[in-house]
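Exercise 7.
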Amino acid sequence: MYIRIRCNLDSIKRVLFYILGMFFVGLGIAGYILPGLPGTVFLILAAACFVRSSDRMYKWVTEHKLFGSPVKKFLETGGIPYKIKIIAVLSIIVFSSISLFAAPYSIVFFNLPVALLAIIGISYILTRPTV
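Solution. The predicted structure, written as tokens, is:
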């Protein structure tokens, strides 16, 4: 006796986006509690996942009284406040420099990827509109 399970690709994608969104919500909330871990970035990623999977959770993330406003503002404008840009760029420079100069790893497998990711992150931040 075989049981036939109908599997819809769209429903699988929705479930995966929902699970990924919940993961990012967890990281985002942890980021609001733990110093050094960004919270809003992960909540923006969660909203991007929920827009593809759950209208109710998307609404919850974007209308939350604590973190809904910055998430919604970024999703609507794509802009980053000037003060946050300065903090983000300085943080990338400081922590990437510490990683590059304090860690005795190989150039190809550690230093090059860290430097490239720092450059990509800084360029992304600086190309966003300032709000």
